[in-house]
Structure formats: C-alpha cells, structure tokens
Amino acid sequence: MIIEIDFNSDEALYLQLRNQIIMGIATAQFQEGDSLPSVRQLADTIGINMHTVNKAYTVLKQEGYVKVDRRKGAVIAIDIDRMRTLAELKKELQVILAKGSCKNITKEEIHGLIEEIYEDYR
Amino acid sequence: MIIEIDFNSDEALYLQLRNQIIMGIATAQFQEGDSLPSVRQLADTIGINMHTVNKAYTVLKQEGYVKVDRRKGAVIAIDIDRMRTLAELKKELQVILAKGSCKNITKEEIHGLIEEIYEDYR
DNA sequence: ACTCTGTTATAATATAGGTATAACAGGAGA
DNA sequence: TCTCCTGTTATACCTATATTATAACAGAGT
Known about the structure:
2 copies of one chain form a homodimer. By secondary structure, chain A is mostly helical. Chain A has helices at 13-26, 39-46, 50-62, 82-102, 107-118; strands at residues 66-69, 73-76. Chain A has 2 domains: 13-76, Arc Repressor Mutant, subunit A, CATH 1.10.10; 82-118, no CATH class. Chains A and B meet through α1, α4 and α5 of A and α1, α4 and α5 of B.
C-alpha cells in the first residue's frame, strides 16, 4: 500500500499515518490478518523516526484496528464495538455537518458525498 | 447560547469553542449579524484566558464564519466558498467513514446518522 | 549465533496550547 | 474631554505534545 505523508500538513505525522492505515483497511488494501510493515521498516521507507510509526501503531491498537504480535508485528484485527463506534461517529459528524450547514451545503449534497466515498469501499 | 467546555477533553480549548460556535450557527442559535460575546466577557464566563477565546475567534474569522468589527466585536458573517467547503468536507468524511466501515457500520447507518443530525438544524 | 520483531528508557529539541500582564488605538456614550 | 469598552499586539512563562536520536532488552525464526 502506498502511504503518503504530507510534511507541510499541520496534522501530526502519527495521525496522518493512522488515518491512512484506517483508510487502507476500509478500501481492502489491508485485510484481516495481514501484517503491517515493521516499525523500523516503515519508518525507513517513509523517512521518519521509528517511534513515530510505533506511536501510530499503538494508537491503532488502542482503537481496535490491529493486534501486535511479537513475531509478526502489527496484524490487522478489528475489534468491533458498534455502540461505541456509532457514538463517536455521531459526535464527529455533528461538527463537520454543522460546518457544511453554515456554508449552505444541503443534506442531499452530504448524502451524495457519502455515496461517492463508499464507491471506493469494495 | 450555552457553551460547554470539557476541561478533561484532549481537544484544545480554542477548538472546542470554535466547534461549539459553528454548531450554534448551524442550529440557528446564532444568526447572521449577531454579535458574539466580547473576548474578555466570554473568557470570564467560561473561566479561561482571554487569548484562548481570541484564538477561537481568529480561527472563525479565517474560516469565514465571522467578521470582526472593532465596535461590535465578532459578528456572525458567513463567507461561502462552496467548492472549498465541499473539498474539505469530503476529505474529513473520508477518514471518519473509513473508521465506520472498518467497524462494520453500514452505509445506510451513516445515512441514518446524517438524518438524525439534520433534525436539529432548523 | 544471527537477525528480525516489538518494547522500553532516556534525552534533546521544537512546536503548540494556555495563562498572565500590559499596553495601544478606535469608537460609544456621558 | 473623560471614561469605558472593543479588538489587537507584544512579551513572557509554563506545560504538554510531537519528533528525533541512541541505546538496550527479550522473545521468536532461521
């Protein structure tokens, strides 16, 4: 999988990494049971420090996307907690839909965006 | 309008403030032309520093939600840039929908959440 | 033995977030 | 004019976070 890091972004490197990996799982570029690259290897190919990658992996573990095996490294393993996830999603959506609403983006346009994005998930 | 700040949150105070104000505009608790409280006054009622409020207002200005008048303070004034807004929304939605997708939240459930949230915008 | 894994520890640096004081300039009202 | 309230700016300080840099350790595979 191609991971693109924007060094000019104001978003923390480890969060960019986390988000890209989550999107990689959603778009089936990573499958349940797949191993992520080792922290050292990924840090090397991206050109960042090992600890930054490790931090991203630790967050992914805490959020229930991977389990870390001493032998295989970080392995995709989704821990599903639907209630918690739905509550989190709603809270995040509230903020970004409010932004759209202020700027005259209609509900229908939002639904359209959702459809567009889900096109990529298969 | 009631502004609730969570001092235990890991989200920055000025960002919490910004988000609440944006949601306040979306839910019509603030109308175009309304003045926000002065930075000192709001800081006082919330119990935070003036500069933190000022930072929130500055961000709101840059993002096109208010204009600052030396007499009236920060006044709600939406600057609509649909293309820019749509692009931003899509990027943010991509991340949070990916989270949902990983956790087996269906597209229909997302559409449902959108409907729920829009119930409050009138 | 060697090499790979994640993990842990420690330190240094830079940036961001938040607070504290203080001062300035412009407009409103007495 | 004097006073008060506005946002704005500057400076300083403290803390937490983000990132890098080395280094070492323990477990597992070959």
